[in-house]
Specification:
- α5 links the parallel β9 and β10.
- 36% of the residues lie in helices and 25% in strands.
């Protein structure tokens, strides 16, 4: 079982010919609203790939709350640990250009009320993999990393967005997952190189660095692996990173080896990039398996 402590958002997605520059107003060709949030995206990606998933987080008491939860419920994710907070449901404004590049601005809303206390000891002990990101309060994430370590629960921690966190906490997860920007931010604080091997050596833990069109690399006590990205025509990269992480977690939860888990995650992320949307772009288990074969 995978337990995900993370954000749940309503995404406002704007399709543009190109991304705006400072002070510029552009006309969007199309705008749509769908569910998002790094936590929910990763939880859904794992569930669509066949994992049993529990979601822990917070939404508001507003009309966007059900939107944020709908796809998770449909995929069989246990959302009993999602509370209704006093703030509005979190939101994100996402701008996507014709090349699939994006710019994102988020408002935490109820995500700022998510608490480590929502994850009870019984659920934690029943968890095979605890999945964490940083769109919820940093202090709560640090608390859960320490609790999971003490309980012997495997943790995958996505350092996203790349905001400040206690360096001691970065040494706690079994796998630290970063993209190139997040890796550079961590390396700057640690005074080391930003590749997976250098980060792993500085932290003493496993590091998985995603490299966009260049694929992904892994280094640490679990082993070393580098895989190229699958060739695709990118349409929208909004949830591709979250898709990679969720499917990687699902593969490890099933007992797949490192190389197999990374290959499956890379394939799923490529499928997500080839589609428009946040959660609507995430592939299911059959689609991923078909693409792999």
């Amino acid at each position: 079982m995978i337990t995900c402590f993370g954000s749940l958002n309503a995404d406002f997605i704007y399709e543009l010919d190109r991304l705006p520059t400072a002070g510029q107003t552009l006309q969007s060709r199309r705008m749509r609203i769908e569910a998002g949030g790094k936590g929910a995206n990763q939880a859904l990606a794992a569930a669509l790939d066949g994992a049993a998933v529990v979601m822990i987080g917070a939404v508001g008491r507003d009309s966007l709350a059900e939107l944020a939860l709908a796809a998770l419920k449909s995929a069989g994710v246990d959302v009993g640990g999602v509370i209704a907070g006093g703030s509005p449901t979190g939101t994100a404004s996402i701008y996507v250009d014709d090349d699939g590049h994006n710019e994102i601005v988020i408002a935490a809303g109820a995500n700022a009320e998510a608490s480590a206390g929502q994850l009870g000891d019984a659920t934690l002990k029943a968890t095979n993999i605890l999945l964490l990101q940083l769109e919820t309060p940093v202090s709560e994430v640090e608390t859960l990393l320490a609790r999971a370590k003490a309980a012997g629960v495997r943790t995958l921690f996505n350092l996203a967005p790349a905001i400040a966190i206690d360096l001691a906490a970065l040494r706690l997860p079994d796998v630290l997952i970063v993209n190139e920007d997040e890796a550079a931010a961590a390396a700057g604080r640690l005074g080391c190189g930003c590749d997976a091997l250098a980060l792993s050596a500085a932290l003493g833990t496993n590091v998985l660095r995603t490299l966009g069109a260049e694929g992904a690399e892994f280094a640490g006590p679990f082993g070393r692996c580098r895989l190229p990205a699958r060739p695709i025509v990118a349409v929208d990269s909004t949830a591709a990173g979250d898709c990679f992480i969720g499917v990687f977690a699902a593969a490890l939860d099933r007992g797949d080896g490192l190389a197999a888990a990374m290959s499956r995650a890379t394939t799923a992320a490529a499928l997500a990039c080839s589609r428009k949307g946040s959660q609507s772009s995430l592939p299911n288990r059959a689609e991923i398996s078909a693409a792999l074969s």
